[in-house]
Design goal:
By secondary structure, the protein is of the alpha/beta class. It has eight helices and seven strands; from the N terminus they run βαβαβαβαβαβαααβ. Helices cover about 45% and strands about 15% of the residues.
């Protein structure tokens, strides 16, 4: 591995890391040498994921139970991690509630609030409390997960809450990149398209028409391989991206170019 991508002696946090892309990001950071804390509500799943990653890498991976929509829970988790590790170098805000694929006129307020609270407010709370630590240490790398659905209107039914939350995450990233630059903190976002995670595989099995229609809208004619996106997070967490902040990296097979 190139020296600029080496994350040895770095401490990284990944939310929503028990499965899906969060698990991919945690594995990639561990492979790059980082000490990784994986955060989510389901501690059993986190523990299994931590064990699995440590069997594949030489890094330490610690499961931390947290509800990112609860500020007291976030504060306690960040304080415990900072005390144990002595610092927090990297934050990957990945945790999210997925799209409900219902139309706005049929959406309930409960569902809307659930999506906004996790995807946007949860990201805000993690940035707020990890950001305080990074400001004190005068360094940090924050990577937020946006989405291509925050940039374009997809043809299939969309409730709007997920898409709005992800557009807001991109805007929040850009805003704080400017605000925290003076503290040597970079804030960037990643904008994934459709990826073949286990959750999405299960969805496709019940919605094959959605999958087939999506392929007609993707120039590369496939959904992304989760194993291929992890290195993007490593790049944004490493010194290779030191002069990059406020950017949004779109990785969608070309979906948003049409």
């Amino acid at each position: 591995m190139a020296k600029s991508f080496d994350l040895t002696n770095k401490t990284a946090l990944v939310t929503g890391a028990g499965q899906g892309l969060g698990k991919t990001f945690a594995l990639a950071l561990a492979n790059a040498g980082a000490e990784v804390y994986i955060l989510a509500r389901n501690i059993d799943r986190l523990t299994n994921t931590a064990d699995e990653i440590m069997q594949k890498t030489a890094s330490e991976v610690y499961p931390v139970q947290v509800d990112i929509t609860d500020e007291a829970s976030v504060m306690a988790a960040c304080a415990a991690i900072s005390q144990k590790s002595g610092k927090i170098d990297i934050l990957v805000n990945n945790a999210a509630v997925g799209r409900s694929n219902s139309r706005l006129e049929d959406e309930t307020l409960e569902s809307w609030n659930s999506i906004i609270n996790t995807n946007l407010t949860g990201t805000f709370l993690m940035m707020k409390h990890v950001g305080k630590i990074m400001i004190q240490q005068k360094s940090g790398k924050i990577i937020n997960l946006a989405s291509m659905t925050g940039k374009v209107s997809v043809r299939n039914p969309s409730v709007g809450a997920y898409d709005v939350s992800k557009a807001a995450v991109e805007a929040l990233s850009r805003t704080m990149a400017g605000a925290w630059a003076e503290h040597n903190i970079t804030v960037n976002s990643i904008c994934p398209g459709y990826y073949m995670t286990d959750i999405n595989k299960a969805y496709i099995e019940e919605n094959i028409e959605f999958y087939e229609d999506s392929l007609t809208q993707i120039p590369l004619k496939s959904w992304g391989d989760p194993d291929e996106i992890g290195d993007t997070v490593v790049f944004l967490a490493s010194t290779a991206s030191n002069y990059m902040t406020g950017a949004n990296i779109v990785i969608d097979g070309g979906y948003t170019i049409w």
